[in-house]
Structure of Cholesterol transport system auxiliary component:
Amino acid sequence: MRHSLLRLSPIAVAIVLSGCISFGAKPPPSLLTLNATAQPQPGRTQSSADARSIVVQVPSVATALSTARVPVQASADTVAYVKDAQWTEPPARLFARLLSDTLTAQANIVVLSPVQSISDPSGNLAGELRAFGLDATTQQAVVIYDAALTRVNATAVEKRRFEARVPVSAIDAASAGASLNQAANQVAAEVATWVGGR
């Protein structure tokens, strides 16, 4: 085989080897993402000198959510993944970005990166994304976020669970994207009301 491959052109070698090597699963026709309902206004300048600031941490997740695939709770003790449903990036990062946009637009809070917060006293919003997928037993998209908030100049940590459930017409990629986006925005709006409350 080695001597016969040497006599082939590079293109022919690539064709022969392509049947032996796989570079990953075939990607789905389209990828899912999240879009914040409350968007920061273009061109508007914010300053931490006259508004509260906060760092939004990417939430921790269980193994089932550490992938770009969309989990579906098939039964009480079984988790599968929705066929052809895949996020543009891990859902925890998408959710953190949606939270940041919602806090900026709805609560008028300046969202800083961890590096920016070193020289600017700010609050900190961390937490765990406990659920971010579909529940086949109830035909719902489910988002559960356990938030942990440390306010500016505070030492105590406040914790609160936020949960949203949105009906899905089918357990498929199209329904998953739209319903999870709606549920994520509902949770983000409730978090923004809580964080901006005082």
User: Anything to note?
Assistant: Confidence is low (pLDDT under 50) at residues 12-24. DSSP finds four helices and eight strands in the chain. The helical segments are 2-6, 10-18, 91-107, 173-195.
